[in-house]
Amino acid sequence: VVARVRAVLRRPRAEPEAEAAILRGRLALHPDRFEAFWDGAALVLTALLTFLLARSQQSRRQTEEATEQEKLLRDELLAEQSRLKEVVESTGVAIWEYDLARRYLSVSDRWHVVSGYSREELGDNVLDTWHTMVHPDDRPLIATRFATLNAVQGDRFEYEYRMRQKNGQWMWVQALAHVVERNAEGVVTKV
What we know:
Blueprint: H1 2-9, H2 16-23, H3 31-91, E1 96-99, E2 104-107, H4 109-115, H5 119-122, H6 127-133, H7 139-147, E3 156-164, E4 170-178, E5 181-182, E6 188-190
Antiparallel strand pairs: 1-2, 3-4, 5-6
């Protein structure tokens, strides 16, 4: 672009009066200074384009580095999730998580196996169904435990209750719970 501008500017000049008419207004430069003006403008333009190109390349490198870092973190997370899943499956423990604010109880696949109910039968939020599965004599104990969560010393507690399986049999469940989230006032929001 700069070479073309210089080539155009180096063409034989028109008569001074014609050139003055072209240059009237904001670019009323003397014809001898016109070429120097455009050489300076071309230099500034070249510097600006070089700067923008360098910034673009730097931005591209930063984006590539961030993408690579994100991929590494994603791979580490997937590996950690896989290890955790193997540990949970090898212990045979059924995992549950209760979000008190949303009244949402989610359970692991192992919990479904132990209870005899499929995920499709109970849905994602098994809270209401779970209450009906708990032995009527044990419901007050569980209600008291969860009502007094904020008074529990530490973040861990346990309780036992009976739960009816799909086949109608009662089984004893030892629930080990851990508070995993509190709100700004310190009230338990997730177990």
